[in-house]
Amino acid sequence: MVNSENKVSIYISSKLKEQSDVEFAKTRSRLVKDKLLSFGIRMEKIRKIVKDLYRKIPELQDKKRCTKTVTKLMATKFFENQLAGIFLLKVLVENKEFKKVSFLRTLISRYVDNWATCDTISTEVVAKIIIKYPNEIQNLLTWTKSRSVWLKRAAIVTVIKSKNRIENWEAVSDRVLFDLGNEKEDILKKAIKWLKREIG
Known about the structure:
Layout: H1 4-17, H2 22-32, H3 43-56, H4 63-75, H5 79-94, H6 102-111, H7 115-132, H8 137-141, H9 149-161, H10 169-180, H11 186-199
């Protein structure tokens, strides 16, 4: 039997797919350079679709059901579905219904496999959580010890995006550099370089 979260995620995906643009999907895949599954929808259009659906679908008003729907969307590995899930989480953060990074750790380590999705969830959700709830910074810093390259990148990008918005930003940045400054993965080396530029 298909549960309500499956039905909602399938419905959201179908609404996104209606806006498909094959040529833009090819352009996006070249830009991201990973094996990206994409419908080819611009980010602002995804935001609008999610905003409209959040208001219209009662299941999304419930935090537990909404986060389950997010997981279903992320699991499809389609870029637009994943962004829809991220934007739903952003709504929960803005509504003060989502205050922890622990769920995001699982989500990122299981389902994120490209820099574009990683940077979007870091910017739109993780950074906003640590800015609103500074105690979560310590949990974020544990990501630097993970085996997941995407959790490590998410930690770096989140710190970059919280510049001038959290206390002791320099100390947090130094800790991230200490933990990850010698990483060999190209995707991490680029993020570390970005962080160093922000530090100045």
